[in-house]
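Hello again,

I reread your note about wanting to compare the complex against the isolated chains. To keep things tidy I'm splitting this into two emails, and this first one only covers the full assembly. Below are the input lines as submitted, including protein chains and any nucleic acid or small-molecule components. They are followed by the predicted structure of everything together. The single-chain runs will come separately.
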Amino acid sequence: MKTTSIMQRNNVNVLGSGDRTIVFAHGFGSDQTAWRQQVETFAPNFRIVLFDHVGAGKSDFSAYSPRRYSSLYSYAEDLLDLCAELKLTKSILVGHSVSGMVSLLAALVEPDCFSDLIFLDASPRYLNDVGYYGGFEQDELDAFYEAMSANYYAWASGFAPIAMATEDKPELAAEFARTLAATRPDIAQAVAKVIYQSDHRADLSRLKVPTVILQASDDIAVPPQVGEYMADKIPQSKLVRIDARGHLPHISAPEIVTSAIAQCLAA
Amino acid sequence: MKTTSIMQRNNVNVLGSGDRTIVFAHGFGSDQTAWRQQVETFAPNFRIVLFDHVGAGKSDFSAYSPRRYSSLYSYAEDLLDLCAELKLTKSILVGHSVSGMVSLLAALVEPDCFSDLIFLDASPRYLNDVGYYGGFEQDELDAFYEAMSANYYAWASGFAPIAMATEDKPELAAEFARTLAATRPDIAQAVAKVIYQSDHRADLSRLKVPTVILQASDDIAVPPQVGEYMADKIPQSKLVRIDARGHLPHISAPEIVTSAIAQCLAA
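Full-complex prediction:
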């Protein structure tokens, strides 16, 4: 028994209607509202499940602790709690960024919860390694953590436009900067470190659920090689490059992401 | 708030007296009673903390679920809960087998809990990999899981003497076979898989706590190369080969393990 229910803890919202269920899982510095444009399209024909990871959005912040969330496994456990609570089987999971690996870890434990995984700009490892290009060297990540810790709000306003990569629509970067700034700095810093230091490469080959890897270009967090790497390692996977830029294409190029998801679902 | 306290959940026992605290953490198929001979030696001069991992010994079995314990991070979280409950700082952690990596993961999150880690027959990865000898191929592990699942009790009585490696003292193998047989088969099978498929090699270099790696010979689970690998990767570490055989030297050669621990503490 938990003092707050899973529904409250993760601010779970269920809407739409249809025989099939799509669970949308948000990424770092964001929350369930990031999916609003996809929700609008799919709600008439699908049951939609939205939630905020603990520490994000309107989740129960008292459930957060750096000890509990020191790895992605706890987020995966939360996701499986949610699936159990809603009795979800064979649901479609769309996971942005860190939620790609979170859904993978969940699917390794209880594959029957999911019929399909759709990763959007996900990565199993951000750090370069021998024979692996993740996009970052440790000293770059250390400088990144240092900047976050020195002045979180300054860091957020600098990071948002780079992540969004939409110079022509500065209002989108401003929106992401606001979401980031709304995150508790101590949580944002701890979570960023957990994500950027994670390494789930060895887990990819164990995934039994069919997976589509959607990848945008000019993504500060995920270089194109990472999508190719995952497609190579995940047994039933397909890499789809989408005509969108930046790390948050579901916000910056919503119709392209929506259409890519629709194609996955129709296939 | 949890329905059972941490003290009950992990069947925590505190005994002995002294300025310094030693936490003894048991391995797979075993429980806190495995440390009885070390406890006898150290209790007069140290405060001793004993516990059973969830799913083992007299822990609260209702706290176990394969979802919650799908990785070693949850065991590490439990260990940190215990340290917080007992307000342990700078304690000495002696971890057998899987508890080596469990204590490492805990020490990465809250290094101040520990002054020293002492691993006894621990391994960061059991599977061989390119450039790494862990001792097992995947098909060997699959056969191992298959045997556990086909007839757990037959498996336990076959595995115990191999793990104990004390042909001259069959009563020790019989004792370990009884502890294994007392474990719920579904839990033993799930936990064995979580352990044997784990890979924490990348975490070794991040450990900031001084670590002594005690390694016996003829250990079915941990070949000598693994101790050397850990000593090479963990920054402040020392490999100590002990004159004992098998995977449970704290039971089969208690005075040798006790004396090795005493030397670590005196250093």
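For quick reference: Strands of chain B lie at 13-16, 21-25, 47-50, 91-96, 114-120, 211-217, 237-245.

B.
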